[in-house]
Amino acid sequence: MRIAFISRHEFNPIKGGIERVTDTLIKEFLINGHDVYSIVLIKENSGYSSPCDCYYFPEISIYSKVNREWYNNLLNEKGINVIINQYGLSRESYLFLDIDNHNIKKLTCIHSKALLSYDTYAHLVMCSTWEWKKIVKLAFLPLFKFKYLTCLKRHYRKVFKMSDKVVFLSSKYKKDIERLHLDIDITKFESISNPLPTKQEELESNKANYVVYCSRMDNEAKNPISMIRIWNDISKRGLHNWTLIMIGDGPDLLEVKQTAERLGCRNVIFTGFTDPFPYYKKAKIYCATSKYEGFLMTLIEAMSFGCVPILFDSYVVASEIVDNGKNGFLIDAFDERKFASILAKLMVTSDISGLQKEAVEKVKIFSTDRIASKWFNLFNAI
Length: 382
Hints:
By secondary structure, the protein is of the alpha/beta class. The chain contains 15 helices and 13 strands. It folds into 2 domains: 169 residues, Rossmann fold; 156 residues, Glycogen Phosphorylase B (Rossmann fold, 3-Layer(aba) Sandwich). 41% of the residues lie in helices and 15% in strands. The strands form 2 sheets. It has a 7-stranded parallel sheet, sandwiched between helices. A 6-stranded parallel sheet has the order 10-9-8-11-12-13, with helices on both faces. It is an enzyme of class 2 (transferase).
């Protein structure tokens, strides 16, 4: 089968979860004898070497007639059977799914929770650092939420109409889609989890007192500033033999660094964009403070290295991955005081090997070969 992955950006695995997932699937599909291509809107000078042939749209505009003609010609020239749109929540989807050849099957992936930030919209507003925006949005909160939901519904209607299947990260998101009353063909709903992009190694026996946090530095969704406030609480408890390692870059990195400095947080290292796996291998604990997620890739990656996870129970897939108290800890959404308390208790626990082994065992269900087989079944079914 000939498969094309389509997106706005290159699938450089160190850039983020979607990129790492796609890079993993491309390699697995190639191993299984499929012809795989990637077609990308924007060419980046990142030094990324694609494992498959990669093509770039001639223009950046998603409304370009030149792009549309070039894209359709390329798909026909390569004899593509299936395209996988990896940018399903953006308007770029309207270009990626605009295909004349009806024999080409179109799959759209939604790499976030189905309702995005709608359920936590008020919390997002309260966390805004722009006071005048906060006041305006709180005053007109119902109106802003209505507008937000209206735009989301319009997008889903169009994507479902243009796609043969819309692939979410959990079957639990089907209820959210049904809540929207979209008047769509709900049989197009499909769910496949993300794959674990690494082969699990033997658990490191000599782990260090590291707490690792890995995400895009974006306070609207990933909420790294919350981790800094939590670590400030830890610092006040005198646990100075531990180090917090913040991995990632993004629009709010400077604000996060400045907050850490202003609060006087001790033992915090910011690495920027880098390979997180050496840190997972050495760290004992992994933390996440996201306001919403679809499927947190860094969570299963860290667990595969035996990091015990602590995270906010702010999205439905969290409880599918973490069994509270068995292989990690789920904290009531945005309760930073409770988060710090559980983290501190774990830091002073003399033996966490049981939790570590359970974490490693749990994420075996996300092995690449298992997830790839679900994709192959979907290809055969459409």
